[in-house]
TrEMBL record, chain A:
One of its GO terms (molecular function) is ATP binding. Keywords: ATP-binding, Nucleotide-binding, Transport. Transmembrane segments: none annotated. Residues 7-237 form the ABC transporter domain. This is NitT/TauT family transport system ATP-binding protein. SMART domains: AAA (SM00382).
TrEMBL record, chain B:
SUPFAM superfamilies: MetI-like. Pfam families: BPD_transp_1 (PF00528). This is NitT/TauT family transport system permease protein/taurine transport system permease protein. The lineage of its organism: Bacteria, Bacillati, Actinomycetota, Actinomycetes, Jiangellales. GO terms for biological process: transmembrane transport.
Length: 260, 285
């Protein structure tokens, strides 16, 4: 059963000052079955964020439709949890209150939501930082908190827009493994936007490649690498190496070799 | 550094043996909060005393700190100054209280409602241009030499900076915070209390600061023109009698009262909210 259906999506932006039209997405269709981890990659400016924003309900598409479990998407909602590149944690709330926020909004009692939030904080490895404010945390810790905040409400699907782009390379690898570890426990459906080929291949069951703007689906590639995955043996994995090369070629990054 | 933390943070100097240089002792002294706060004032007062002693200006125009302190003491002993301060502060409290209520309500309405904003923005700019004291003539015609007139002028000056700062604060809330809240299931009502209100606090607090400062000035202006009591009235009355030293007393009192408002009310509130959340850096600290 297809769980998320993105059907013939089209998005034209109109500049309010010049009245110029930009066709960001020409015609994008794909489906994601329940429990799959799917990455959306493509060159910068091809409309990845736009697709994710439409699925999240932040932007209304100029054409096409999105259905989640057969129900058309209209506006944002807690069934689709979003992890943002800039974390989007509430600066005036502690880590605990941030993680409990979704539960509070959905009428869960205080004791119960704090218990759940604590569980999520432990899960993402932030124990001991419950009372800290976001500005007191490192970038990596903030993104852990943001992931915990989304997990707490048990969304049907998680939407992540370049979630690790604002953290340093070292932390990024750790977080990629961490998110996979957590994902393995729950197998929530994930739509993951990135422009990083390595990240897409490492994380996903499937990688959908968008062409340059106005974008269409250029390729849809299955990643047969066994889970659990870890970066330590990834660069010697034949599937990883060959898929990576194939994707690099598609994105026009010719001659790229795997870093040792 | 706020004044009320002084008692907690200043410790006696560690016992010093002979041989400690004067410079080291001076450096240790300079680290004490009370000393840090008072030192700049001590310098100003010293310069003032020297200028007065040298007789650069005739004493009918310029008196020294000793004379001013003397006048201050007599007017405190006679009970005039305390009564005037209470009068001024009461007027300011009534005016800014009403101003805050009106300004905060209008600020959020205009900041969050598209129609309200389109309607009111040109009016805001127009009326903001008519400065506080420019209203005094018509206000006196309407309400006479009364507390109502003073209050109207203070409310007027407090409201505009407050509205504009709140609108700017609301506009500065990152889109992704609003998106995050709504995707986590926040209703419009919840969004208001959980995101818009705290998100607008940096704007609100700077608006309160500006508004209160303007209100304070408007109060003194109003007291000078229509007052029968209060610090502003005292200064103007002293001028009429050629009593320069009481004019100086009034000026010093204004400065001290504002400093205390900042140190006892504004700074602690900001410390607990916007500074704690990392939304603004400590102001002037
Ligand atoms: N709100 C907007 N208004 C106008 N143009 C936009 C808007 N958002 C995105 N675009 C344009 O649409 C195209 C796709 O943007 P985006 O979805 O952010 O791409 P990506 O995330 O793949 O880098 C870009 O050319 C961008 O300039
Ligand atoms: Mg993007």
């Amino acid at each position: 059963m297809s769980f998320l259906t993105v059907d013939r999506l089209n998005q034209v932006y109109t500049d309010v000052y010049t009245n110029e039209h930009t066709v960001a997405i020409d015609d994008v269709s794909f489906t994601i079955p329940a429990g799959e981890f799917v990455s959306l990659i493509g060159p910068s400016g091809c409309g990845k964020t736009t697709v994710l924003n439409i699925v999240a309900g932040f932007v209304e598409a100029t054409g096409g439709a999105v259905q989640l479990e057969g129900v058309p998407v209209a506006g944002p909602g807690p069934d689709r949890g979003v992890v943002f590149q800039d974390f989007a944690l509430f600066p005036w709330k502690t880590v605990l209150a941030n993680v409990a926020f979704g539960l509070k909004m959905n009428g869960v009692g205080k004791a119960e939501r704090q218990a759940t939030a604590q569980e999520m904080i432990d899960l993402v490895g932030l124990s001991g930082f419950e009372r800290k404010f976001p500005h007191e945390l490192s970038g990596g810790m903030r993104q852990r908190a943001a992931v915990a905040r989304v997990l707490a409400t048990e969304p049907s699907i998680m939407l992540m827009d370049e979630p690790f782009a604002s953290v340093d390379a070292q932390t990024r690898r750790v977080l990629q493994q961490e998110v996979l570890r957590i994902w393995d426990l729950r197998r929530t459906t994930v739509l993951f936007v990135t422009h990083d080929v390595d990240e897409a291949v490492f994380m996903s069951d499937r990688v959908i490649v968008l062409s340059t703007r106005p974008s269409q689906v250029q390729a849809d590639i299955r990643i047969p690498i066994e889970r659990p995955r870890s970066w330590t043996d990834m660069h010697t994995n034949e599937d990883f190496v060959s898929i990576r090369r194939e994707l690099m070629g598609m994105l026009g990054v010719e001659g790229a070799e795997v870093a040792p | 550094m706020s004044v009320q933390t002084t008692a907690k943070t200043s410790r006696p100097d560690p016992p010093r043996r002979t041989g400690t240089s004067a410079a080291a002792r001076w450096r240790a002294l300079r680290r004490r909060p009370l000393v840090t706060t008072l030192f700049p004032f001590a310098v100003v007062i010293a310069v003032w005393a020297v200028v007065a002693e040298l007789g650069v200006f005739p004493s009918a125009f310029f008196v020294g700190p000793a004379t001013v302190a003397d006048s201050l003491l007599t007017s405190v002993q006679r009970g005039i100054l305390p009564a005037y301060i209470v009068d001024s502060l009461t007027r300011l409290a009534v005016g800014t209280g009403v101003g805050l209520l009106v300004g905060v309500a209008l600020g959020f309405l205009i900041g969050l409602n598209r129609h309200a904003r389109r309607f009111s923005w040109p009016l805001l700019l127009f009326f903001q241009a008519i400065g506080d004291i420019a209203w005094l003539p018509i206000v006196i015609i309407w309400f006479g030499f009364s507390l109502t007139s003073v209050t109207v002028v203070i409310v007027y000056t407090v409201v505009f900076p407050l509205i504009i700062s709140i609108v700017a604060g609301l506009d500065a809330i990152p889109t992704n915070l609003l998106r995050a809240a709504s995707s986590l299931g926040a209703s419009r009502w919840r969004m208001f209390w959980e995101v818009y209100v705290p998100g607008a606090l940096p704007g609100l607090s700077s608006g309160v600061r500006t508004g209160l400062g303007y209100g304070w000035r408007a109060l003194i202006a109003a007291e000078i023109i229509i007052g029968t009591s209060g610090v502003g009235f005292m200064m103007f009355d002293a001028r009429r009698q050629g009593d320069v030293s009481h004019v100086f007393v009034g000026m010093a009192v204004l400065g001290v009262l504002w400093y205390m408002t900042d140190a006892l009310v504004l700074a602690p509130l900001e410390k607990e909210t916007v500074e704690r959340w990392g939304l603004v850096e400590g102001i002037g600290r």
